[in-house]
């Protein structure tokens, strides 16, 4: 497919290919492949690799095969192979051919016999343990096998017997004869074939009793298919000499396939290895491979994320030669960016409380003509512009949008306060009812009837809230998703399962406006003020309305860890009884539980409260940080996650970070002078070096750059370097905005504030 230019790969690999094409290395030909092992469901890392291989080859008019690396019969199956193939097509690519390493087993075997004849391979009859023990170490040479000088005729005979299943597993292997003293351990007579006599291969059945190892299969497959650029992840760089050695040994002449490596994609707060993902499924942490919280293609599809967003994310994350970790916020940005101009806005109330408009009669309905789209969005051509929204005496509003005792700066409904019911009218709260437990059961208000359908411009209201008229509302279930892990780098923990976020799924019952009833089931909506949603494709099938949150409107995690903005209401501490599937306090003693509860009520996160309750030294640092002006919740997160991570094995007593400096770090975040992502390195620096927060920020060069002077060079360069895209943008192709954001971010200084950058870019483009 012709990829839109805002998600086309643009990186060092493209440069390498461009040079080869220009130099006519392969007569200008480009051929790549995506080579998954069908041993699990595809994940975001595979998506990155698919985008890279298919995207790059496509840019050069080349070909790209999907090749299953099906050399390990014990863990592979058809179901996984189908899921991988589906993922390629879902992402928008069509393989030139779908092929299997097993297609080449005959050819590989013939080549192996050839190597034996040439004295370049031999059958070793030691066990794999013995072979391993004799490989030596990085500093010591290995020892030659006693079978290394076996006569080629004998090796050939044994190899043929191995192939026919006449020898048990582990009795022999075929090895390449290279150099047991080679500084690169991969070159010390590597294994080419091992016996798996009883394994059933999902394609070749029991035809083969021996199976090739990855290194022996991969380059040979590339050569057979005429691959030009064979891209793999960084950890294979030590395998490259072996890749080339095999090609030399079987006599493939230049120009031939070459291996290039890039850093695998890691994303904050998630895990990506198939093995770990399987554990989440098998332990029941998630509902399956397609659970919307999973970083799998199946999970993304079920959640309502579109392939456009994943491709865009892949291009924003980019391709690098060094391992790193990509912010989850970038993925969320790509998803929002994709949905923004295709998702009609509607209103839904996820946690309802009744509001009675006393000066409307029961049975009276006013039907408003409400816009589906905000002014700054260009909707799809054929999309309807408005929908009818009924307003009546009783409406549902969000429980969190009312406070009986509002804190200073409250921007929603409260006694005697006025708010605008979005698209509707201004209402003034005249009273409310509670039940015995003090829970609000009903709110009363009067409407200013002059304000119907007129935006209350210039009128002093507290804020605007969303709502749904009760009588005509449709009941719906809302599934709100949060990140699956509460730790930014679960992979780095001893046991990643300890970092599972118990609140990653919250299910609510509420109401949605009736207009959605007539829409196609796969419509992606923006629920105003809440987030992007669509109907769960499976659980809505029966006619129930079950909505999955695709992405929230803002980065909720950043908001949670940031000091509360002055106008934000103070978060109600969550009742402890509401503890999710796993209670973090379950391991605490009676006394610790009390401390835990006290901390939780003060607003500290439950996970963090449990850690602090059990650790007096850490709690004392937390208390001093709060005493130095930090918010409770933020200080809890900082001490429990960032400080502990910075400590590693160091005792807390040796840490040089002062509570004042820690509090000041949080203040910098609140002041937008530091991004939340930069907090980890700053805390690390404070812990090991001491000093003040601004000093640390300065030393690490992490100041947030949000001013025009700091960002302008990147913006100007992004526009100047892409005149063609700029012209197309000016000609009305406004979806290129995301492309320019990506281009500018790539050129921007460390710490660049993406929001400020977007705002400036918008100005520059006159958008
Ligand atoms: P896993 O650890 O999940 O099993 P893998 O690398 O073994 O990953 P394969 O199915 O063998 O997975 O890989 C298929 C292709 O996808 C390979 O080319 C591999 O380099 C690429 N790939 C896998 N994970 C990532 C990742 N996180 N980032 C980029 N590419 C990846
Ligand atoms: Mg693997």
From TrEMBL:
Keyword Nucleotide-binding: yes
Enzyme class at the top of the EC tree: ligase
GO biological process, one term: glutaminyl-tRNA aminoacylation
Annotated EC: 6.1.1.18
Entry's Gene Ontology cellular component terms: cytosol
Keyword Cytoplasm: yes
Pfam families: GatB_Yqey, tRNA-synt_1c, tRNA-synt_1c_C, tRNA-synt_1c_C2
Region ranges (Disordered): 561-591
Source taxon at top rank: Bacteria
Keyword terms of this UniProt record: Aminoacyl-tRNA synthetase, ATP-binding, Cytoplasm, Ligase, Nucleotide-binding, Protein biosynthesis
Molecular function in Gene Ontology: ATP binding; carbon-nitrogen ligase activity, with glutamine as amido-N-donor; glutamine-tRNA ligase activity
Spans through the membrane: none
InterPro entries per record: Asn/Gln_amidotransferase, Asn/Gln_tRNA_amidoTrase-B-like, GatB_Yqey_C_2, Gln-tRNA-synth, Gln/Glu-tRNA_Ligase, Glu/Gln-tRNA-synth_Ib_cat-dom, Glu/Gln-tRNA-synth_Ib_codon-bd, Rbsml_bL25/Gln-tRNA_synth_N
Record-annotated Asn/Gln amidotransferase domain positions: 620-765
Family label: Belongs to the class-I aminoacyl-tRNA synthetase family.
The protein, known as: Glutamine--tRNA ligase
Lineage, broadest ranks: Bacteria, Pseudomonadati, Rhodothermota, Rhodothermia, Rhodothermales
